[in-house]
């Protein structure tokens, strides 16, 4: 037992000594690795007279998007599992496919106007539901109006 501990201690010292020697003998050129200091600093282009708020609130194109999701549910049913239950022989079974889609548009023709709408549908895609359809208007950044159907999110929490 004592011989094993001594052998393990000697092996650990040799490993640590080899690691220390390897660190001292390893050299590299930091400039070649990271580049020169001149490349780290670049001049930013001069900002024009463009209003940053307008670039966020105005778009020449109408943004259209959506999502599609599908599912497949499996169901097995045993009518009387208490007498002669066989897990490989259910009394009935089946698969139920499902699919749902959402489509939206977002138009921002001016800084003080926005139009948004979204539609939801589900398999068998016979009818669609208008989920949201509203327009926003503002006057002099003092009066903000929204007309239409919208979802309201009150935040995260519980109510009892």
Search tags:
alpha+beta; 160 residues; 5 strands; 3 helices; 5-stranded antiparallel β-sheet
Q: What is the 3D shape?
A: flat
The number of distinct β-strands equals 5
Tell me the strand percentage band: 35-45%
Strand order within the widest sheet?
1-2-3-4-5
Oligomeric composition of the shown chains: single chain
Distance between the termini: 66 Å
Structural class: alpha+beta
Give the topology string: H per helix, E per strand: HHHEEEEE
Mean pLDDT: 81
Treating each run of at least 4 consecutive H or I residues as one helix, how many helices?
3
Query: What is the C-alpha radius of gyration, as a whole number of Å?
Result: 34 Å
What kind of sheet is the major sheet? 5 strands, antiparallel
Poorly predicted segments = none
In helices, the fraction of residues equals 10-25%
Would you kindly provide a brief summary of this structure?
This protein has 160 residues and is α+β, with helices and mostly antiparallel strands.
